[in-house]
Amino acid sequence: MEFEFPTPLTTVPSTANKTGVWRTFRPVINYEKCIRCYICWKFCPEPAISFVPGDKYPAPSEAFLKRDAVEINYDYCKGCGICANECPKGAIDFVLERGDGQ
Amino acid sequence: MKTMITGNEAAAWGARLARVKVVSAYPITPQTKVVEKIAEFIANGEMDARYIRVESEHSAMAACISAENTGVRTFTATSAHGLALMHEMLMWAAYARLPIVMAVINRAMAPPWSIWADHQDSMAQRDTGWIQIYSESNQEELDAVLMLYKICEDKDVLLPAMTMMDAFILSHTMEPVDIPDQKLVDDFLPELDLPHRLDINRPAGHGSLIMPEGPVMEYRKAMADAFAGVRDKILKVEEEFREIFGREYGGLVEEYRTEDADAIAVVSSTIASTSKEVVDRMRERGLKVGLARVRYFRPFPHRELREIAKKTDMLGVIDRSYTFGYGGALYAETKGVLYGHSDIPVKNYIMGIGGRDVTPEILEKVFMDMLKIAKDGAVDTEVEWVGLIGDERWSA
Ligand code: SF4
Ligand code: SF4
Q1: Hey, where are the domains in chain A?
Q2: What's the pTM value of the predicted model, to 2 decimals?
Q3: Shortest Cα distance from A87 to chain B (angstroms)?
Q4: Which CATH number fits domain B2-245: 3.40.30.10, 3.90.1170.50, 3.40.50.1000, 3.40.50.970?
Q5: Res A100: pLDDT
Q6: Alpha-carbon distance B93 to A27, whole Å?
Q7: How large is the ipTM?
């Protein structure tokens, strides 16, 4: 194999590597319980949790809809479980990946 | 210009004459004087370089890696625990194909603390992808720095190199050294032109993740191929060096009075100088002994050692380190390359650990032992420690 350079130089960002496939357990946010405190967002080491408009997901009550909701990006979430462990409301379930994307 | 300088100063002069642009280092005995001297050169305006002070050797190598990545020539120096702390970064430098040159002053590893010469520190780094050369004199140290930049920066090589010298025996001992003319060095050593340097006109990521199905293995093979070509570059560059500066060192292995030798010692660094003296004395008495001084341990001189084995009846390999696998590294690798090529006896002598003095008297005993093995055609024991306290057999 011939290379232009002696060491690999990448011209695509590292986000091209969809490391989410390494996940064994999947964190699933239960939006009926989530109070949008953003603690999971702060702790996610990936980071794979981002903000989305408040009305995209349901909330425990009308008032919460004014705040942005959190969303997990499963392309990059490696399934470490830190978010589920840190969530003060126990709003993140940690479920075994079945390999069918469910 | 001939002047009296220490080995440490010789290494510093090498960096200065090579017009190194970035130096990053952390002090450690017995290396400190190398970077002190460079700091002095820079402070006096005699060297146009940036000196980056850091909090550890790991950071020193990281700084050299970053600087070299921008396409400028870098230099550092360390010893023993400093080198061990660099370990991770050493592989990063090599796999990123950065032709950094570093002076390593060989010092024993602790515990117990010992600041004196042995080769445990650099032998432990033999698999990091760095070229390794062991100097025998201060002049050779200075010349090695100049030659290594030329070898390492060759487009077909692009690998880092460490040049070793024995603690105190060279690092702190003054010897007459010819400091080459800057003009001649400039003619010999062109400016670095790193093909994969960071370039704002060619934005790219360096060292990012590659999945197993990506070409990681292929890049490693390309590096192995580059390493395999280093031997010829060493010989070519040494020939050019000889033409300009009038000095030569014998390539990967310097042979000393190996003609019709009954036994040849395979040895590196300063034990070789003492051994040459002993060989001369024994030859005067009609005892046919010779010496093969291994200068380059990486790449390993397999062809040279196979040729040398053809000239004699036995090889005595002297190691100034012990690898806790089987014997010393020089011994294990020498035996490895001889397998299938030679069946002469090979014995390993472990000597000079922790700076234990290796005297002419004790070396003569080793040569006498080697001659006996040559005559018997078999070794008594494969690996022997020589010069232990209270061991009557080897006491001088
Ligand atoms: S499981 Fe880990 S990686 Fe995935 S969203 Fe939670 S904290 Fe982030
Ligand atoms: S930590 Fe729990 S409650 Fe807070 S935003 Fe995350 S999921 Fe919602």
Answers
A1: 28-93
A2: 0.90
A3: 31
A4: 3.40.50.970
A5: 63
A6: 38
A7: 0.82
